[in-house]
Amino acid sequence: MRQRSYGRDTGLTLRIMFTMFMLGIVWVVFMGLLFGAGSQRQ
After folding, report:
1. Longest Cα pair distance anywhere in the chain, in angstroms?
2. Distance between alpha carbon 38 and the CA centroid of its chain, in Å?
3. Residue 38: how many CB atoms within 10 A of its CB?
4. Phi and psi of 6, rounded to 5°?
């Protein structure tokens, strides 16, 4: 069996980048909700 080089799999790289981008969006929304809820309680 030949060993594949995973660096050249563009589909996998794009899926990883898309997943990280979506996780970043979820994190920003979650932090915004936390800060918004925290600033309303005074």
Report:
1. 64
2. 24
3. 9
4. -80, -15
CA distance 16 to 2: 24
* DSSP SS3 for 1: coil
The DSSP secondary-structure symbol of 6 reads G
User: Is residue 6 a contact partner of residue 12, using CB atoms and an 8 Å limit?
Assistant: yes
Tens of each residue's pLDDT in the chain, 42 residues: 566 665 578 899 999 999 999 999 999 999 999 999 888 766
Report pTM: 0.64
HSE at residue 20, side-chain half, CA atoms within 13 A, is 6
Record the tokens describing residue 16, joined without a space.
């990883």
